[in-house]
# Entry
Amino acid sequence: MTFDVITIFPEFFGSILEHGLLKRAMASGHATIRLHDLRDYTDDRHRTVDDRPFGGGPGMVFKPEPIFRAVEALRSQVPEKSLPVILLSPQGRMLTQAVAEDLSHAERLVLICGRYEGVDERVAENLATDEISIGDFVLSGGELPAAVVMEATIRLLPGVLGNEESREQDSFSFPAGGEGRHGLLDCPHYTRPAEFRDWKVPEVLLSGNHEQIRLWRRRRALEKTWRCRPDLLAQFPLSEEDRRWLMSLKNAADGPVTDIG
# Structure
């Protein structure tokens, strides 16, 4: 999978691409990330990429010409294929695990990193094929969101993580075959030592009883989702057992529920 990132700060991605998953994915050939300096697509000696907004107001707005030139140059490399172009924008649709899953099926993506007050609307209307936001907040530019989109997408590519089962156990994930948590938050995890500062690992995890462990993890994922992100349960295909467990949580809302029986 190839990412073409259009930005005025290509150096921003230096350390991000030199560590962790993105570095491993590029080294293994699973992903290619190419950085394009938007100023290289300007036509004046000052390499101007922005101007004042029509109608007045604060801030500066990215001009459309350099962005169109950059994207059209990339499209000319693959004229026989459609090239998805994503504008990172607070006005875009929210990035979710499902959106990342959809993006992971593309061979190539162009990511446009805005700055300042925003990007000329003609880019969104006539050039971008999608707008994506990483949350209901405003950042100074699209570089961080671009890095988030790449990380969320690349880790879903087959072979990147090495352990596909680990990926399917992530929060919000929809495991293959339609079984599992279907978008719930992940269950709690513990490792050695079994006791730390008088805090003990739940006995069921030490029991070796795989069915009881499965049930415990399922119920803890349901509980964490109910307490932290109840909105996710609206799209969750609850079994009768799940419904009984959630009802017991609601009936005992004044204290933690620890029984798994």
Notes: The domain at 172-251 is CATH 1.10.1270.20 (Trp Operon Repressor; Chain A). The chain has a mean pLDDT of 90.
